[in-house]
Amino acid sequence: MPCASMAERKGEGRGRGRWFWAGLILLATIHAAVAADVTVSGRQILNDGKRFDVRGATGDGPLPMLATLGATTVRTYGEDPGPILDAAEKAGLKVIVGLWVGQPRQGADYGDRAFVERQLAELQAMVEKYRNHPALLMWGIGNEVEVELADDSPAWPAIEQVAAMVRRVDPAHPTMGVLAETGSDKVKKLIAQAPSIQVLGLNSYGDALYSAASRARAQGWEGPIVVTELGALGQWQAAQAPWGAPFEPSSTQKAIQLRRYLKALEGEEVGTIAFLWGSKQEVTPTWHSLLLPDGVWLEASEAMAEAWGGQAPAENHAPRIGYLRVADDPSAPFAVWPAGDEGSFTLDAVDPDGDMLEARWSVMAESAARSVGGDPEAAPHAFPEAVRQSGPTGARISGLPAGRYRVFVEVHDGRGAAATANMPFEVR
Predict the structure, then answer these.
(1) CA atoms in the 13 A half-sphere facing the CB of 17
(2) What is the DSSP string of 145-190?
(3) What pLDDT sits at residue 368?
(4) Which CATH number is associated with domain 35-315?
(5) Which residues does the UniProt record annotate as the domain Glycoside hydrolase family 2 catalytic (predicted)?
(6) What is the pLDDT of residues 212-233, one digit of tens each?
(7) CA 204, CA 215: separation in Å to the nearest integer?
(8) Which ranges in 309-421 belong to alpha helices (H)?
């Protein structure tokens, strides 16, 4: 086999050199994309040295649509974050990856050394697996670990143990502790007993949102704050029917409140994460749902887009509900009628774009579940045969045995948006 000439060898060497340097450049590019440095500076979160404003939602709804609203961030709770990290990267979003810290109210025993070591090892494996993902923003350490405890002392060392591990294993991404509101001293306890936490997360709803940040500051928190769950009204805050059924605002009323809360929080310079970008049964199928199960969106999306400088999907407007009322008693907040009789409800709904509206009526049993901390609930039994007559201006309900129920209406515009309302009623 003939020997290569010196020139050929030099050419081969130059070719190998080009591949070598190209490989180094590629590796450097990949490294730069993977190793974005997220830091905390005063009350701000910095992504590669630039201010990063946390705004977004938690849930499993479509991320491209969320990004269109002007969101920057999606939050998870503790499931394997791989799929949502990949989806978020494609959508141009960052992820607050939740690390689920066992809750004592659910049986987590922090006196059990085996449990503690197993949990820490599992969470460390997750951090090691995803710490270099380019969509990772920070780690959410637990969610309301302190809730419903007469003695919350086990919660704080549990949070600190995980946060300290994360700081050691992944110093490039901050740690955030998530509390259910501030309480009278919960933030103080977090500061004193979990010093490895760098960002304060607060789950807060309704008018409590106006003062959540200032109450946290009053307890001594000086770093960044993210409202990690926010909504127009928690069911625990709502007025109730005599039998304990809380009154849910219509989607229009929720959007009005959401606009006010997002505006107030913008003035406080805190991050905002809406709950829930998807659908979830909690008291009702619509209470906290920002989307219907089929992906149809509600006016809350417009409120988010207005606050975040984005656009509503397809630049459409959702229908608005003026009222859902008891037909023969317009001021009544609930309905009651005897078994064998019927109830009648009236509806006023409009569409800002003039779209033709379709009203879909349904009846469900009143949920008996009153879960804590968003624990799973089964959907109540539905009674489709009870809707005897319905249309865009009202419905008549009959044929139900004695019991407690809700009438629901969804008003669709045919362009991917809807409005919702419901009212509790009793058949005696």
Answers:
(1) 6
(2) TTTT-S--TTHHHHHHHHHHHHHHH-TTS-EEEEEES-TTTHHHHH
(3) 87
(4) 3.20.20.80
(5) 118-192
(6) 999 999 999 999 999 999 999 9
(7) 12
(8) none
